[in-house]
């Protein structure tokens, strides 16, 4: 069986860590029965500079017949976010119904937490972020623009269908884990309409998963607890914005944004899911071979799991963690001296 | 001159730390020229149990003729948040136009940060939270409730007037500090209508404060940076929700929620501002003399500053930090054994 993978290296360090991913995948494909067919898509800010769009009008259709999309990062100085993100990243997430944004937060062996006295046994949870609706809705606008009375209104849209599918995913995930604990982020003590509705969807689903302990946290306290009590958490589910914040905060306690992977998943096998490191294109450090490829390699592990290539996934993750655990070859953001290529070499050597 | 102070002890540990505040204020009022007139308001969940409302219909009018309101905390199990908060806390903030929520984050001497290798010199910033509009708007509702098509829409309302007044406050504050740096939280790369408007208000105001370095952070990255680089920050301004999250996260790195003070300010002297610790009523630890009074005592310091009693404010803060710095008498949440009363005794002894 051949997995058809669409590659979007993108901009900056996105394009620099993509070769690390490909080298890992090529090494794994030497195994019998594991095959990939890669198609390159140049969609990026550079593409935008030449064509005036981030991807062609039929870009989504070109991506559709793939089993997965692997993305580096997009964004470049001078290209406004609403162009680079709303022209590529967000449409892919939404048009393919990738309603789950799954972001593991785990302190890899050998890495030092920014938290005092915290080790790998203390930081090990999954952030499940709703990825299609909520605070990121397109609905809203302005009135009296330019006048003293100017105002903007942004609608936050939470649907029962959108909530149930993400909550169902989160409950199942929590049920499958040893601790069977699901924390959900809300702010129903302050935000009057959307958040009580969200709480009700959680309450409505809980009886279907009697084994799961459900814990409610207001998002402010939850953020604080990720610092003071990371060991309390197992699976955390949140709306689009809350999931976004918590899944950047979590990695900050676990080696930084340079190691954090993510998966944008539509569990329906008929459409591609997308895998991307949490970090951005980081133009300030691009082109110097200093980007940390850990996030990208871990992202590849998540893609392999999604493709049901569990042995390959396990072996790649073990190789990665063997290297961090040993600590001899480490990237600069983690206190070492190794470049992107050298670190990847070491992982490949370990992978054998 | 006599300062008329409205006291709302509230529920749980709110009512337990209020005596600590009063003892400090009484000690200070032995000084010539410093006088307080206290009026007690029993507004609380207990009041609700007896009267069916958190405060009487003319509650706001009863509070109005005061120079400041000092609040413990409200909330009690069995009383839903929308009753306890929307019936008391949020109306006070909004009806008195307390549009500034000021929350200092500073690691007091003697306290240990949850962050590795971080000391008092690394954590010292002010979170300025917009306190009246934004994500906490009343506008919104539901459709198809109870049906599979159910949805809720929450409007986030950002006005130019509301933004300008909070930004003006934040810019002035940044200008007055040594580092003259203002970081603002946004999410204009993902949230299409409200956040670009907010960014424009910041950009529009910046030229009026040429001495201030303005730095833009998306809220997810900002949250991460409060963990990895707290030393980067001086003054941080954010919308109601972003300010809420960041001002709980910050204290988590600086001794915990038990030490965090806050001020809800309307700079217009004609209406009372309100001072309250960031922590809630914590019913789980109430009634045991173990609540940490530091947040409340520091809140009193903020109130004294607001009342222009700067000597008294400085002396009380010095006494508090002398006690934490010495570290002999410490509350349980900070690793000591002292109760609420014993810790307060020690501060009073230091105050002389
Ligand atoms: C209790 C809640 C409504 C409140 C808020 O979000 O404003 C609290 O978290 C705070 O920060 O004062
Ligand atoms: C770049 C931005 C739109 C994006 C988001 O908020 O979804 C990013 O922060 C992420 O988390 O993938």
UniProtKB/TrEMBL annotation, chains A, B:
GO MF term (any one): tartrate dehydrogenase activity
Keywords: Manganese, Metal-binding, NAD, Oxidoreductase
Alphabetical list of InterPro entries matching this protein: ICDH/IPMDH, IsoCit/isopropylmalate_DH_CS, IsoPropMal-DH-like_dom, TTC_DH
Obligatory cofactor(s): Mg(2+); Mn(2+)
Catalysed reactions, as listed in the record: (R)-malate + NAD(+) = pyruvate + CO2 + NADH
Domain of life assignment: Bacteria
Isopropylmalate dehydrogenase-like domain segment(s): 4-347
Enzyme Commission code(s) on record: 1.1.1.83
SUPFAM superfamilies, per the entry: Isocitrate/Isopropylmalate dehydrogenase-like (SSF53659)
Family listed: Belongs to the isocitrate and isopropylmalate dehydrogenases family.
Protein name in the entry: D-malate dehydrogenase (decarboxylating)
């Amino acid at each position: 069986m051949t997995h058809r993978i669409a590659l979007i290296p993108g901009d900056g360090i996105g394009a620099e860590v993509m070769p690390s991913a490909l080298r890992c995948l090529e090494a794994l494909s030497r195994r019998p029965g594991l095959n990939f067919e890669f198609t390159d898509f140049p969609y990026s800010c550079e593409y935008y500079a030449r064509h005036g769009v981030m991807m062609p009008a039929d870009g989504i259709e070109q991506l559709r017949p793939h089993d997965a999309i692997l993305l580096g990062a997009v964004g470049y100085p001078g290209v406004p976010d609403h162009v680079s993100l709303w022209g590529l990243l967000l449409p892919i997430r939404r048009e393919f119904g990738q309603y789950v944004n799954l972001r593991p937060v785990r302190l890899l062996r050998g890495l030092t937490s920014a938290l005092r006295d915290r080790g790998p046994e203390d930081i090990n949870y999954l952030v499940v972020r709703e990825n299609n609706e909520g605070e990121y809705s397109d609905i809203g606008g302005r009135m009296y623009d330019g006048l003293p009375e100017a105002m903007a209104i942004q609608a936050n849209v939470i649907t029962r269908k959108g909530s149930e599918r993400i909550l169902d995913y989160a409950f199942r995930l929590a049920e499958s884990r040893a601790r069977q604990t699901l924390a959900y982020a809300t702010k129903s003590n302050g935000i009057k309409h959307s958040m009580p509705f969200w709480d009700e969807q959680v309450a409505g689903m809980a009886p279907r998963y009697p084994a799961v302990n459900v814990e409610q946290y207001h998002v402010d306290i939850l953020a604080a607890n990720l610092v003071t009590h990371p060991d309390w958490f197992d699976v955390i589910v949140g709306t689009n914005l809350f999931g976004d914040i918590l899944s950047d905060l979590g990695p900050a306690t676990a080696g930084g944004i340079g190691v954090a992977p993510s998966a944008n998943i539509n569990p329906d096998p008929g459409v591609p899911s997308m895998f991307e490191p949490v970090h951005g294109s980081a133009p300030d450090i691009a082109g110097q071979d200093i980007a940390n490829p850990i996030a990208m390699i871990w992202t590849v592990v998540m893609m392999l799991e999604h493709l049901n290539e569990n042995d390959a996934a396990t072996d790649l993750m073990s190789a990665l963690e063997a290297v961090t655990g040993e600590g001899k070859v480490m990237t600069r953001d983690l206190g070492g001296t190794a470049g992107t290529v050298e670190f990847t070499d070491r992982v490949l050597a370990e992978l054998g």
